[in-house]
Amino acid sequence: MTGSGKTAAFLLPILHKLIDRPRGATRALVITPTRELAAQILDALNGMAIHTPLTAAAIYGGVGMGPQEHALRTGVDVLIATPGRLLDHMGRPYARLNNIEFLVLDEADRMLDMGFLPDIKRIIKAVPAKRQTLFFSATMPPPIEALTREMLKHPVRIDQGRRSTPAVGITQAMYPVKQDLKTHLLLALLKRGDMPQALVFTRTKHRANRLAEQLLKAGIRADRIHGNRSQPQRTAALEGFRSGKYRVLVATDIAARGIDIEALGHVVNFDVPKVADDYIHRVGRTGRAEAVGDAFTFVAPDEENDIRSIERAIGKRLPRVTLPDFDYSAQPAGKFEVPLGERIAAIRARKADDRARSKAKSERRGHAGTAQRTERKPQDSNARGPHRGDSKPSRPGAGGKPGGRPGQAKGRQRNRYRDK
């Protein structure tokens, strides 16, 4: 649903239903996986409701709870929230959801990937059973289908466009290049002058930081956005990129879903994503709303298998291109090197991601064992902590230290994704 007007598709009917009825309590709740998407939906709603008396607020982590508490106490017509921070408020007497008439789950599959399914079920239990529920999901894995059967009565399913396919207006290409030449290739593309702005995706937070530093040293106005940055930093980076202050925004997959950057012409996959859906949503940041754009992917020799998997998933072979006058055999003095500690952290993060995906596959097949259920209990306990929405992501692989408590690794892995 890239650039298709999905946000307006659920906001406009809800606003129409609410506008002529008495107010005083929150009657519509929109759940979304990330802070950036919550803020973006709030901006869209405020624009649509500018000439109406309807009010709205966004609830997400990384910022103070005071203004959010005030909004919940006074009552707003529409509440947009991330699951973790909303549950933090739900533990207080002022957070009342007993008048909810419309419940929207946006990017439902992404919330599943980020480990929010238990949180969503807790939120659903707190809202009235008599309501209208809307699901929006790029894919429909078995757990999401099971949740729709559990939550919805006589649902109508609407599929827009072909699944697992980037938007028609996106020109895709891949650049075969050695790992230590990727930064130099990106700089060469930027210096050609036909890439006024670019959203660049890296696989890890460490690589995002390092790449942004390399670009700044080369005189390129750049910033980065990822889960380890504070909410004010993330907001400033995104707004700076939208306003043209920054020519390059380096991001992890936190920015891949739902972020709308008007007239963005170029997306660069500095690292090949491991999953085809991530590739589709990354490149979908350009070519939005029937516009056109370019999506380039840098492919090192050790990433060939990943790009072939993506090509099979999207049903097409990406053209292999090279940049004229670029020395692909060079041995640069300033390589894109990552310190040993960061490489170890990245390896641990990938292993943790692999374990999480294996666990998700097992749950989708319905073969989760008693041991797995036992390991999830500490997660639920941690999930009820008083300041979870503000908690920092844990270090990848920290739960694997000797002497760790049972279930500690999985609990920390889940917290690593909290309100990204």
Protein architecture, described:
With 420 residues, this protein is α/β, with parallel strands linked by helices. The protein has 2 domains: 146 residues, P-loop containing nucleotide triphosphate hydrolases (Rossmann fold, 3-Layer(aba) Sandwich); 170 residues, Rossmann fold, CATH 3.40.50. 41% of the residues lie in helices and 12% in strands. The strands form 2 sheets. It has a 6-stranded parallel β-sheet with strand order 6-11-10-7-9-8, with helices on both faces. It is globular.
Keywords:
420 residues, alpha/beta, Rossmann fold, five-stranded parallel beta sheet, 15 helices, 11 strands, disordered C terminus
Spell out the blueprint of helices and strands:
Layout (H helix, E strand, L loop, with lengths): L5 H13 L9 E4 L3 H14 L7 E4 L6 H9 L3 E4 L1 H8 L11 E4 L2 H6 L3 H10 L5 E4 L6 H10 L18 E7 L5 H10 L6 E4 L3 H13 L4 E4 L5 H13 L4 E4 L14 E4 L6 H8 L9 E7 L4 H11 L25 H25 L5 H14 L24 H8 L5
Parallel strand pairs: 1-3, 1-4, 2-3, 4-5, 6-11, 7-9, 7-10, 8-9, 10-11
